[in-house]
Specification:
Distance between the termini: 85 Å
Oligomer: single chain
CATH architecture of the largest domain: 3-layer Sandwich
Largest sheet: 6 strands, antiparallel
Bound molecules: FE2/S2 (inorganic) cluster
Radius of gyration: 28 Å
CATH superfamily of the largest domain: Rieske [2Fe-2S] iron-sulphur domain
Order of helices and strands: HEEEEEEEEEE
Number of domains: 2
CATH class of the largest domain: Mainly Beta
Strand content: 15-25%
Length: 209
Protein backbone atom coordinates (compact mmCIF):
# COMPACT_ATOMS: atom_id res chain seq x y z
CA UNK A 1 0.00 0.00 0.00
CA UNK A 2 1.31 3.27 -0.95
CA UNK A 3 0.95 5.50 2.11
CA UNK A 4 2.62 8.35 0.47
CA UNK A 5 0.62 11.41 1.39
CA UNK A 6 -0.61 13.56 -1.40
CA UNK A 7 1.71 16.41 -2.00
CA UNK A 8 0.36 19.64 -0.64
CA UNK A 9 -0.72 22.10 -3.17
CA UNK A 10 2.18 23.77 -4.66
CA UNK A 11 2.85 27.42 -3.80
CA UNK A 12 0.57 28.64 -6.54
CA UNK A 13 -2.27 30.10 -4.43
CA UNK A 14 0.20 31.74 -2.01
CA UNK A 15 2.07 33.45 -4.79
CA UNK A 16 -1.16 34.43 -6.49
CA UNK A 17 -2.36 36.15 -3.33
CA UNK A 18 0.96 37.92 -2.94
CA UNK A 19 0.83 39.15 -6.51
CA UNK A 20 -2.69 40.44 -6.05
CA UNK A 21 -1.59 42.24 -2.89
CA UNK A 22 1.42 43.75 -4.63
CA UNK A 23 -0.74 44.84 -7.51
CA UNK A 24 -3.22 46.45 -5.11
CA UNK A 25 -0.48 48.38 -3.36
CA UNK A 26 0.87 49.62 -6.68
CA UNK A 27 -2.61 50.67 -7.74
CA UNK A 28 -3.10 52.53 -4.46
CA UNK A 29 0.28 54.28 -4.82
CA UNK A 30 -0.56 55.37 -8.36
CA UNK A 31 -3.93 56.65 -7.19
CA UNK A 32 -2.38 58.66 -4.37
CA UNK A 33 0.27 60.10 -6.68
CA UNK A 34 -2.40 61.15 -9.19
CA UNK A 35 -4.48 62.74 -6.43
CA UNK A 36 -1.45 64.66 -5.10
CA UNK A 37 -0.56 65.85 -8.61
CA UNK A 38 -4.10 67.07 -9.27
CA UNK A 39 -4.30 68.87 -5.92
CA UNK A 40 -0.98 70.63 -6.57
CA UNK A 41 -2.11 71.66 -10.05
CA UNK A 42 -5.41 72.97 -8.73
CA UNK A 43 -3.63 75.10 -6.14
CA UNK A 44 -0.79 76.37 -8.29
CA UNK A 45 -2.45 76.78 -11.68
CA UNK A 46 -3.36 80.37 -12.56
CA UNK A 47 -7.07 81.03 -12.28
CA UNK A 48 -9.08 81.27 -15.45
CA UNK A 49 -9.15 84.81 -16.77
CA UNK A 50 -12.58 86.38 -16.90
CA UNK A 51 -14.02 84.45 -13.98
CA UNK A 52 -14.06 84.75 -10.21
CA UNK A 53 -10.53 84.38 -8.86
CA UNK A 54 -8.98 86.03 -11.91
CA UNK A 55 -8.94 89.32 -13.77
CA UNK A 56 -12.38 90.15 -15.14
CA UNK A 57 -12.93 92.51 -18.07
CA UNK A 58 -16.09 94.38 -17.08
CA UNK A 59 -16.40 96.21 -20.39
CA UNK A 60 -15.84 99.75 -21.62
CA UNK A 61 -15.51 102.50 -19.05
CA UNK A 62 -18.22 104.40 -20.90
CA UNK A 63 -20.74 101.70 -19.92
CA UNK A 64 -20.76 102.93 -16.35
CA UNK A 65 -22.59 106.21 -16.09
CA UNK A 66 -22.99 108.20 -12.92
CA UNK A 67 -26.41 107.64 -11.41
CA UNK A 68 -27.02 104.34 -13.19
CA UNK A 69 -27.79 101.35 -10.96
CA UNK A 70 -24.88 99.03 -10.16
CA UNK A 71 -24.20 96.39 -12.78
CA UNK A 72 -23.98 92.79 -11.65
CA UNK A 73 -21.35 90.37 -12.95
CA UNK A 74 -22.35 86.80 -12.26
CA UNK A 75 -19.06 85.17 -13.29
CA UNK A 76 -17.00 87.63 -11.25
CA UNK A 77 -19.45 87.66 -8.30
CA UNK A 78 -19.32 91.42 -7.96
CA UNK A 79 -21.22 94.62 -8.69
CA UNK A 80 -19.67 97.57 -10.42
CA UNK A 81 -21.15 100.64 -8.87
CA UNK A 82 -20.58 104.27 -9.77
CA UNK A 83 -21.39 106.75 -7.07
CA UNK A 84 -20.65 110.40 -6.48
CA UNK A 85 -18.70 111.77 -3.54
CA UNK A 86 -17.18 115.16 -2.82
CA UNK A 87 -14.10 114.42 -4.93
CA UNK A 88 -16.16 113.32 -7.93
CA UNK A 89 -17.43 110.06 -9.42
CA UNK A 90 -15.96 106.83 -8.12
CA UNK A 91 -16.23 103.39 -9.69
CA UNK A 92 -16.07 100.58 -7.16
CA UNK A 93 -16.26 96.78 -7.52
CA UNK A 94 -18.25 95.31 -4.63
CA UNK A 95 -18.09 91.63 -3.67
CA UNK A 96 -21.59 90.15 -3.63
CA UNK A 97 -20.94 88.29 -0.38
CA UNK A 98 -22.31 89.93 2.76
CA UNK A 99 -19.54 90.65 5.29
CA UNK A 100 -21.85 89.46 8.06
CA UNK A 101 -22.44 85.76 7.39
CA UNK A 102 -21.87 85.50 3.66
CA UNK A 103 -25.32 85.73 2.05
CA UNK A 104 -25.49 87.21 -1.41
CA UNK A 105 -26.52 90.83 -1.21
CA UNK A 106 -28.91 92.01 -3.94
CA UNK A 107 -29.35 95.61 -4.99
CA UNK A 108 -32.76 97.12 -4.33
CA UNK A 109 -33.93 99.28 -7.22
CA UNK A 110 -36.37 101.32 -5.14
CA UNK A 111 -34.17 102.20 -2.16
CA UNK A 112 -31.04 102.25 -4.33
CA UNK A 113 -29.19 100.41 -1.62
CA UNK A 114 -27.79 96.93 -1.18
CA UNK A 115 -30.05 95.04 1.22
CA UNK A 116 -29.09 91.70 2.65
CA UNK A 117 -32.18 89.48 2.93
CA UNK A 118 -30.65 87.25 5.61
CA UNK A 119 -30.34 89.61 8.59
CA UNK A 120 -31.09 93.00 7.11
CA UNK A 121 -27.72 94.67 6.67
CA UNK A 122 -27.87 97.65 4.35
CA UNK A 123 -25.11 99.27 2.31
CA UNK A 124 -25.15 102.28 0.02
CA UNK A 125 -24.01 102.35 -3.60
CA UNK A 126 -20.44 102.80 -2.39
CA UNK A 127 -20.79 99.56 -0.44
CA UNK A 128 -20.51 101.52 2.80
CA UNK A 129 -22.22 100.29 5.91
CA UNK A 130 -25.57 101.91 6.64
CA UNK A 131 -27.16 99.61 9.21
CA UNK A 132 -27.61 96.02 10.33
CA UNK A 133 -25.33 93.41 11.90
CA UNK A 134 -22.57 93.51 9.25
CA UNK A 135 -19.21 94.37 10.87
CA UNK A 136 -18.19 96.74 8.06
CA UNK A 137 -18.99 97.78 4.52
CA UNK A 138 -19.07 95.42 1.54
CA UNK A 139 -15.72 93.94 0.58
CA UNK A 140 -14.18 95.16 -2.66
CA UNK A 141 -11.94 94.19 -5.54
CA UNK A 142 -9.28 96.38 -7.11
CA UNK A 143 -10.37 98.21 -10.25
CA UNK A 144 -8.01 99.35 -13.00
CA UNK A 145 -8.44 100.60 -16.53
CA UNK A 146 -6.83 98.98 -19.55
CA UNK A 147 -7.41 100.07 -23.14
CA UNK A 148 -10.58 101.87 -22.12
CA UNK A 149 -11.96 98.80 -20.33
CA UNK A 150 -12.65 98.36 -16.65
CA UNK A 151 -10.60 95.48 -15.25
CA UNK A 152 -11.54 93.95 -11.92
CA UNK A 153 -9.07 91.79 -10.03
CA UNK A 154 -11.17 89.23 -8.18
CA UNK A 155 -8.05 87.38 -7.05
CA UNK A 156 -7.69 89.38 -3.86
CA UNK A 157 -10.38 90.80 -1.63
CA UNK A 158 -10.03 94.21 -0.02
CA UNK A 159 -11.95 94.51 3.23
CA UNK A 160 -14.83 96.96 3.06
CA UNK A 161 -14.75 100.36 4.78
CA UNK A 162 -15.35 100.33 8.54
CA UNK A 163 -18.64 101.40 10.03
CA UNK A 164 -18.91 105.17 10.18
CA UNK A 165 -17.16 105.85 6.88
CA UNK A 166 -19.75 107.47 4.68
CA UNK A 167 -18.73 109.14 1.44
CA UNK A 168 -21.62 107.86 -0.65
CA UNK A 169 -25.37 108.40 -0.18
CA UNK A 170 -26.54 108.15 3.42
CA UNK A 171 -30.26 107.90 2.76
CA UNK A 172 -32.44 105.41 0.91
CA UNK A 173 -33.93 106.81 -2.29
CA UNK A 174 -37.26 105.01 -1.74
CA UNK A 175 -38.94 102.03 -0.08
CA UNK A 176 -36.78 99.12 0.99
CA UNK A 177 -37.07 95.74 -0.74
CA UNK A 178 -36.37 93.75 2.41
CA UNK A 179 -38.90 94.16 5.19
CA UNK A 180 -37.24 95.12 8.45
CA UNK A 181 -33.87 95.61 6.86
CA UNK A 182 -31.46 97.29 9.16
CA UNK A 183 -32.77 95.97 12.45
CA UNK A 184 -29.45 95.06 14.00
CA UNK A 185 -29.31 91.68 15.62
CA UNK A 186 -32.74 90.53 14.47
CA UNK A 187 -33.54 87.10 13.13
CA UNK A 188 -33.75 86.67 9.39
CA UNK A 189 -37.18 87.54 8.03
CA UNK A 190 -39.14 84.38 7.31
CA UNK A 191 -40.07 85.56 3.86
CA UNK A 192 -38.62 88.84 2.67
CA UNK A 193 -41.27 90.86 0.95
CA UNK A 194 -40.56 92.68 -2.25
CA UNK A 195 -37.77 91.68 -4.52
CA UNK A 196 -34.27 92.92 -4.45
CA UNK A 197 -32.97 92.97 -7.95
CA UNK A 198 -29.91 93.83 -9.86
CA UNK A 199 -29.47 94.65 -13.51
CA UNK A 200 -29.26 91.60 -15.69
CA UNK A 201 -29.43 89.14 -12.88
CA UNK A 202 -30.75 88.74 -9.39
CA UNK A 203 -28.55 86.62 -7.18
CA UNK A 204 -30.44 84.63 -4.63
CA UNK A 205 -29.68 84.87 -0.97
CA UNK A 206 -27.52 81.97 0.01
CA UNK A 207 -24.37 81.19 1.85
CA UNK A 208 -22.45 80.47 -1.30
CA UNK A 209 -19.69 82.86 -2.33
S1 LIG B 1 -25.58 87.62 6.12
FE1 LIG B 1 -26.07 89.63 5.52
S2 LIG B 1 -26.83 90.54 7.30
FE2 LIG B 1 -26.33 88.54 7.91
Amino acid sequence: MDDKKPAPDDDGPFFARREILNFSWKLLAIGLAAEAAWTSYDILAPKRSGAFGGLVDAGPVTDFKAGAPPKYFLDGRFYLSRYTESSGDVLVALYQKCPHLGCRVPFCDSSKQFECPCHGSVFNTAGEYIKGPAPHGMDQFRVTEKNGHVMVDTGSIVEGPPRGVLNGPAQAAGPACVTGSGAAGTSPPASPSGSATSPGSSPSASGSP
